[in-house]
Amino acid sequence: MIKTQNVEKENRKKRRAALKQGLLSALIAVSAVTLTACGGREETVSADETPAYVYVPEYIELSNDSYSNFYDVQITGDAVYYVRNTYDETAMTSVTEICRYTPGADTEPEALPVSVRENTSINGFTVDGAGNVYLCLYDYSGEELDADGFLISKTFLAQYDASGNLVYEQEITDLLNEDVDNNYVNGILSDDEGNLYLCSSYLVRLFDGQGNYQGEVSTGESWINSMGKGKDGKIYVSYYDNTSADGGMVIADIDFAAKKLGEAKENFPSGNGGNILSAGAEKDFLINDGTKLSEYDLSTQTSEEILDWLDSDINGQYVNSVGALSDGRIVAIVNDWNTGETEIALLTKTDSAELVQKEQITIGTLYTNQNLQAAAVDFNKSSEQYRVDIKTYIDTNNWTETSYQDGITSLNNDITSGSNCPDILDLSQLNVEQLATKGVFEDLMPYLEESSVLDKDDFMENILESFQYDGALVAIPSTFSLSTVIGKTSDVGEEMGWTLDELIAYADAHEGAELFDGASKSSILYYCLTYNMDSFVDWSTGECKFDTPEFKSLLEFVNRFPDIYDWESDTRSQPAKIQAGDVLLAMAGIYDLNGIQEYAAMFGEPVTCIGYPTLDGSAGCILNVSDIYGIASKSDNKDGAWAFIEHYLAAQDEDNVFSWGLPTRQSKFDEMIAEATKAEYVLDENGEPMLDENGEPILAGGTSSISYGDWEYTYHVPTEEEIALLRELVSVAKPLPAGNDEINTIISEEAEAFYQGQKSVDDVAKVIQSRAQIYVSENS
After folding, report:
1. Among candidates 422, 415, 622, which has minimal Cα distance to 529?
2. Which phi and psi (to 5°) does residue 755 adopt?
3. Cα separation of 565 and 519, whole Å?
């Protein structure tokens, strides 16, 4: 195990070194950049509109720190402070230190002369301009246990001067426990007078320079989002104002002497930078929303973007701390969730004329997510010819009731316009079949067949077939998961698949038992329509069939179930209900090789993946994909667009993968199976496998388990039968048919009158037919 860890650590160092070299040599390309338009959307501007500057990153590697042993990173003044844990394998002891690193000072990180005693952990810390260190400490040296058998900790407030001398230490355990809703310290700060501010959920406790409690400032029932020091030296908190009619995030300073909040300033962005507010470079505060970095001005109560993270080859979702240095540079702490690596990025404002130019590729997406940003950043770092930017059509930070439909409309307009059409389309939220019939997508098959990086025959045949429309391959997913329905073989038979009529007959034959755990009208309607929407809507002809006996029968079946399931009436877990015979079927999500055995164990006897009901009774197994991209047929740079998709799909060969689930490439799928079924056991002195208390061989790598509270299961090495069933499910799985959110909304809205006894099923079916037909006619 130690050897494996050392090899992996060395591999990470090599990847980091290569990454750093590539960044510093290529810098950043800006043949086009993104600016924020009205409503928060990102818009691409042409090269002649390129701004005068961009922020170019330099990555700083903390040479004496492993990627995993420092945390609670914060920026004060021109220095970066963090907590570092080191473990001495010889002495078998751990040491906790607070370290300081000054970017650009050409010095190594140094540990501050602060000694934390044994059995004590640092819950939070802050450092003032004079070098004084203030700590919130948890002490576990006692022997008293709580009701769950865990040691009861005590909380202390402490100050050390710049030389490491203890100035004071005060226990505040009882003070915190006076308010159970605010007994956890989320953050700690000091002002220029040495006063301390301890932030909890809904209040900030105040302490003077000697650690004496002075009172508190409350936000009422408004959750405190973050706390920090502004450029004016005052301490501020941001919180959601739920007292006003408009609501929204606000920010207010804390008046220590008066023990109250100052005037609330509105329009404060929520950001995603944790619970620490950082002072801005030119204005009052820096705000990272995951895609861009902005500055907020207290006087005007407005924010202005200063950089787009993607322009700096940084995934903004990975930035957990950011600050402005006195010379105007921006320092960002970047924690890569995929690799576990944490680095310091030092960003310098640079004239655009000094930077290398590349061909621009635009990715259009309804929602930006960290996987897409990570893929874009990775591609931009590696490509010498192309650069991708992301055009987001829905701004989740400024959500309104019309945001989703406005985003769809805007994307459709860009697709049809030609001039504004993105080169690459994120298909994860789109009606792919409907768009494919309109010729929106480029055929990827010729690109795949000519690729020197990917092998067409290596992709699972069913996966590729599932994304072919009229002979054109419109997309290639990198990973997938499966959704099916599982029941007892003794009840539903051995074969996969059934019709809606067979499902209803099955429910009739088991009166008194729940069909699914938590079954309600909405969940049953979803279940029944999942693979039957195309029975009622034909997008190719524009015909709807919601006034048929089949659909009316469906509504009558759905009406048997409660409007809202009463979870309080039975708090047992799903496995416990299944084993008691009170629940008949389980909707199963299969994301890895252990999913099938878990559900089989729930039923305690042979099971069948009967699936969702279909029109012809075939296996209704859903092929779920995300992070899937297609090339727009109107793209002016299809080769560049394919270069991104090819690079993204090839990323499965690395251990830094942007998605999760099962791989679509057969070779990677087989490798996963081979690794999972390779059983190595703990051997005794005679070389024989050692057995556990149940007489089973003990796996050398240990076992994993899952617990539902009243039911738990320990996974075994997947069997040949389980792997065979998984392969069969993969071979028959299909993406969800081309349903539509608007159609589902129409059905749900109009069916309510039937459920409530206000209209007959015939009348409701006629209304649904009319509304759906109008919508389909306008959109097919």
Report:
1. 622
2. -60, -35
3. 6
